[in-house]
Specification:
381 residues; alpha/beta; Aspartate Aminotransferase, domain 1; Aspartate Aminotransferase, domain 2; 2 domains; seven-stranded mixed sheet; three-stranded antiparallel sheet; 11 helices; 38% helix; PyrdxlP-dep_Trfase_small; Aminotransferase class V-fold PLP-dependent enzyme; transferase; pyridoxal phosphate
Length: 381
């Protein structure tokens, strides 16, 4: 039986928030999560309000923005002033890449292979003479000793990693990597989209300087909305490449006094997606009520249940089992993964095909019953 605790309370309390789960065994949160009912309702209330009253309740919109910013900051142990809202992870990482002052010959060390978002913003700096040094993953795993070696060989100015590998679910040791960066004076940037909401995150404990995550996966939020964290002591290192009326101090006064804000709000140039702000705040409230520590334990427990089911059937795993490497993602080797995923879809079991494997990604409202449905179909393939 699992060495981790599979919660009965989390599905009991929160499964009704997800009408999709009435019909589907939804195990695809590493791609896009179903939107919680409270998030959809919050968005609808805002849209109805604007339809009926236009901008009369503008102050309420500002309050909703502050609420979302505060909740996002609490999720990663940051200050609200260190949070900027973005369109997605790619947007957030590109803000950092373009805002730093680079010199020809500067090097960025990047986990590789990885999702394109982790790599492309830095390769895009080649025209400015910036080099990309690849830190090779081994079966999805990012070894701390490999990171240390590349940092020392290249004297990289910035380290860029994904907190969890999107293909295998391998989690990296952010605390150890942050310590390496701190010792060397290297900037530390993290793509957290595959862990934020499913695992605890503390930007101070891990010495993270910049962090970006879209809201539509483990954060259970809207598509096209995300966050960027910029450590307060690093904000002056970044000069925004895009600015507007909201980037400056006292932007609401509509003056032509160009003084950039002293916080992460300098990276929010203009009017934001208020509808998504309402939905995002509601999604974060659900995660806070559930407790990310509880979600983490629950998803790791379900991951062990998946591993046990695979072992019983002789199915191998692509996901590593090293200390601290497990995440909410489990990647299953299958002799005909493409056909298996199609069969699962036909039976309303939602997973994803990644790198020729079956990627399974349960969340807080998932149950062993959902996993049983998965293997019932696989047994028949």
């Amino acid at each position: 039986m699992s060495e981790y605790l599979i919660s009965e309370e989390l599905p009991r309390r929160f499964r009704s928030e997800f009408p999709a789960l009435e019909e589907y065994a939804y195990l695809n949160h590493a791609s896009v999560s179903p939107l919680p009912m409270r998030s959809a309702e919050a968005t609808k209330r805002y849209l109805d309000d604007r339809m009926r009253y236009g901008s009369l309740h503008f102050e309420d919109w500002l309050a909703a923005r502050n609420d979302a910013r505060t909740r996002a900051a609490q999720l990663i142990n940051a200050d609200p002033e260190e949070i900027a809202f973005t369109g997605n992870t790619s947007h957030g990482l590109s803000i950092v890449a373009q805002a730093l002052e680079w010199k020809p010959g500067d090097t960025v060390a990047v986990s590789y292979p990885d999702f394109p978002t982790v790599v492309f913003p830095w390769q895009n700096l080649a025209r400015r003479g910036v080099k990309v040094a690849k830190i090779m993953r081994h079966g999805g795993s990012l070894r701390t000793e490999d990171v240390e070696r590349v940092l020392d060989q290249t004297e990289a100015r910035l380290l860029m990693v994904a907190s969890v590998d999107f293909a295998t679910g391998a989690a990296c040791d952010l605390d150890a990597l942050g310590a390496l960066c701190r010792e060397r004076g290297t900037l530390f940037c993290v793509d957290a989209i595959q862990s934020l909401g499913a695992a605890p995150m503390d930007v101070h404990r891990s010495s993270i300087d910049f962090l970006a995550a879209g809201g539509h996966k483990w954060l259970l939020g809207p598509i096209g909305f995300g966050i960027l964290y910029v450590r307060q002591s690093r904000e002056e290192l970044l000069h925004p490449s895009t600015v507007g009326w909201c980037s400056v101090e006292d932007g609401e006064t509509i003056t032509l006094d160009f003084k950039l804000r002293k916080d992460a709000g300098r990276f929010e140039p203009g009017t934001q997606d208020i509808a998504s702000l309402y939905g995002f705040a509601a999604s974060l409230s659900l995660l806070q009520e559930a407790g990310v520590e509880n979600i983490h334990a629950h998803t790791l427990g379900l991951g062990q249940y998946i591993r046990d089911c695979c072992a019983e059937r002789g199915l191998a795993l692509a996901s590593p089992d090293g200390p601290g490497e497990r995440s909410a993602i489990v990647s299953i080797e299958h002799p005909d993964a493409d056909r298996a995923v199609k069969a699962l879809s036909a039976e309303k079991v939602v997973v994803t095909l990644r790198d020729g494997r079956i990627r399974v990604a349960p969340h807080l409202a998932s149950t062993t019953g959902d996993i049983d449905r998965l293997f019932q179909v696989l047994d028949a393939v």
